From TrEMBL:
It comes from Gossypium harknessii. This is Myb/SANT-like domain-containing protein. It comes from the Eukaryota.
Amino acid sequence: MSTSAIEVSGEKVKVMWDKRLTEIFYDICIKEILKDNTPEWKAWKKLKGEDAGLGWNPIKRTIDVSNDWWESRLKLVHKAKKFRALGIDPEFEGILDQMFMGVVAIGDKAWTHSSSTLRSEFFEDVDNDIPE
């Protein structure tokens, strides 16, 4: 049995994970990543794009930008419309970034930065010919 002390909403909480719960958690995460079930995070990242310095409105709980910015961005990212009313909290976004940045999931081929090296069967059906 493993225990961890984590902070949730400013309160330290002791969490106890046995081997079976840990295995279930990992299994769920892997299955969701392999199914590419990260659409909300992807839409949020695409909405924000390369715009630096976007503010956060803690009362509205979304990014603090002009109506013109919203109108122009939502034309490009239709799935992000819901974020105008409720965005992804910056603290939570950082956690999602750690989970999903650098993840590649294509069918039965998947890799994350924590996967170490790629299995050799990953490349079995890859065309290695280099065009001239």
